[in-house]
Each structure stands twice: as structure tokens, then as C-alpha cells.
Design goal:
Layout: H1 3-14, H2 19-33, E1 38-45, E2 50-57, E3 63-71, H3 77-85, E4 90-91, H4 96-102, E5 112-121, E6 124-134, H5 142-200, H6 206-277, H7 282-296
Antiparallel strand pairs: 1-2, 1-6, 2-3, 4-5, 5-6
Helix pairs in contact: 1-5, 1-6, 2-5, 5-6, 6-7
Length: 297
């Protein structure tokens, strides 16, 4: 993949708003290398160690979603270790077609090789990218040429997953706040109604009415104390969410810095390759390479 294309892809992926858009961009990169290459994104439940969904890019530009319920333990141990490391690619070798069927994809005629790379968030496996390519005797494999683009996709996917997790945390906090206030209001209305009814029963003995009123007042006080306790718990939850949001923002800044570094490296590689392709003398090539590194620093 030319460095110019890699730098452009890094810029476009940094603006992708969801996993569908990022996956579609990655599929176009794979098709530019080999049209027959199949690419899919698998989402995982890190707590239950299950593969829960498959996202498959379509030629029309849309992304198909298929629910799954496959245990990660069904994959070979070396593959599972590679998935959790989320740093290297691993292929299934001669068993590629069998595991491709397990994941719900169709093998190519003549067979191929299935390679995967894990995607993690906060050290937990949240998904993996799978690339299926035809077997070839000569030339570089598709996964080798597509590797830089998949690394950029992993950064974009982590950014998108962090944004989604932060949005879900805010929604959960808002829903918890609404539930607490609704329950508190219902209890207060019920106790107030009983208290008003007891005060209205002037025909009953005064001592019984006074005792009933005192009981309802105590219940009202207990409800107020419980509401205060729930408000304190809600404040603690809000503080935890605020800390989590702060950590997510710091991770997003770090992710942006890594993206900028990748783009700078892409531009430097492009300048070096262009200097080498121009066919100038060695001194001119060396001067242009030094200028490229100077511009980067």
C-alpha cells in the first residue's frame, strides 16, 4: 500500500463516526489489493467470552449484521492468545476453511487462508477482524499488504468503542436518576394521601387518630431519609462516571496522538520513496531523505 494512501486512510478513519463506516473503508482498501478478498468484523462479549455478532461489508456500501453465539474457546489456543494480545495476526493454516464455516462465511473454490487480528478495549477482547484470501504461490499475501490499514482501523475502532461506552454510561446514569426521582415521588404522594385521610377521620377516637398520624409522619420521615441515602448513592455513581469519562477523554487524546504519529510516519515514508524513485544521484537522495526527517522533527 503506498504511504500516501496510508496517510489518507488514517485521516479518513479518524473522522469515522461508527464501526460500519470504518469497516467499509477497510473493505475498499482490501478490494484495491485483491478483489476476491473477504473481510469481516466480529464483535465479542468479553465477560462471557462469546462471539455475538458478525459485520460483513457489502458491495453496495452497506454493512450486513448477523447475530452469533459462538464461544471463543472453540478457537485453537494459539489463535486465542493472538486475539488477546491484539498486536499480531494469526492464521488458521490448513484448517482455515473449517473455521471459516464455523464463523458463518463461505470458503472460496480451491480454498484459502483465514487470518485474524484481535481488538481490545481496556485490556479486554471486544472483537476481531478476519481476512480470508486465496492461496497463492508467489508474491506477498493480502494480509501483509493490508496490515498497516488494519492497524489504523484498530485505533479507529478503539476510539469509537470508547465513545459508545461513554454514551451508554451517561444514558444509564440519566435513567437511574429518573427512576430514583419517580420512586421517591410515588412514595411521598402515597404517604401524604394516607396522612390526609387519617387527619380527615375526625369521628374516630382522638388517641387512635393521633397515633395513626404519628405513624404516618414517621413513615414520611423514613422515606425522606431513604431518599437522601439514594441521593448520596447517586452522587457517588455520578463521581465514578465522571472519573470514567475523564479516563476515556485521556485515552482519546492518546489515540489522537498515535493517529498523528502514524500520519507523520506515512508522509516521511512517502517522501523517502519518492526520493528513491526519482533516480537522482546518491548525494541528492541522501539530502532529500535528511530533509524529510528534518521536516518530521
Amino acid at each position: 500500500m503506498p504511504p500516501r494512501t496510508l496517510a489518507t486512510l488514517a485521516t479518513v478513519l479518524s473522522t469515522a463516526r461508527d464501526a460500519d463506516a470504518a469497516l467499509t473503508l477497510l473493505q475498499h482498501e482490501a478490494w484495491d489489493i485483491e478483489r476476491s478478498a473477504q473481510l469481516a468484523l466480529f464483535l465479542c462479549d468479553s465477560r462471557r467470552l462469546l462471539i455475538t455478532e458478525r459485520l460483513t461489508p457489502q458491495a453496495s456500501g452497506s454493512v450486513g449484521r448477523t447475530p452469533l453465539n459462538i464461544s471463543v474457546d472453540h478457537l485453537p489456543a494459539p489463535i486465542r492468545r493472538a486475539l488477546h494480545s491484539a498486536a499480531t495476526f494469526a492464521d488458521f493454516g490448513a484448517e482455515s476453511d473449517d473455521y471459516l464455516k464455523l464463523l458463518g462465511l463461505t470458503p472460496q473454490q480451491g480454498g484459502g487462508i483465514l487470518s485474524i487480528r484481535g481488538l481490545t478495549l481496556d485490556g479486554e477482547l471486544v472483537g476481531f477482524v478476519a481476512v480470508y484470501e486465496s492461496r497463492r504461490r508467489f508474491g506477498n499475501r493480502v494480509i501483509e499488504r493490508l496490515s498497516p490499514a488494519i492497524d489504523l482501523f484498530a485505533l479507529a475502532f478503539e476510539r469509537i468503542a470508547e465513545h459508545d461506552a461513554r454514551f451508554e454510561a451517561v444514558q444509564a446514569l440519566e435513567q437511574l436518576t429518573r427512576d430514583i426521582h419517580a420512586e421517591y415521588n410515588n412514595v411521598m404522594r402515597g404517604l401524604k394521601l394516607e396522612l390526609d385521610q387519617a387527619r380527615a377521620q375526625n369521628g374516630s377516637p382522638e388517641e387512635a387518630a393521633a397515633a395513626r398520624i404519628a405513624q404516618l409522619e414517621r413513615s414520611l420521615a423514613n422515606a425522606a431519609e431513604e431518599a437522601l441515602a439514594r441521593a448520596a448513592r447517586l452522587t457517588a455513581v455520578e463521581e465514578q462516571v465522571a472519573q470514567a469519562v475523564s479516563r476515556l477523554e485521556e485515552a482519546h487524546v492518546e489515540l489522537h496522538s498515535q493517529g498523528e504519529l502514524a500520519r507523520n510516519q506515512g508522509r516521511t515514508l512517502y517522501e523517502i520513496e519518492r526520493a528513491l524513485d526519482d533516480g537522482s544521484d546518491a548525494e541528492e537522495i541522501l539530502r532529500r531523505i535528511r530533509a524529510a526527517f528534518s521536516a518530521r522533527s
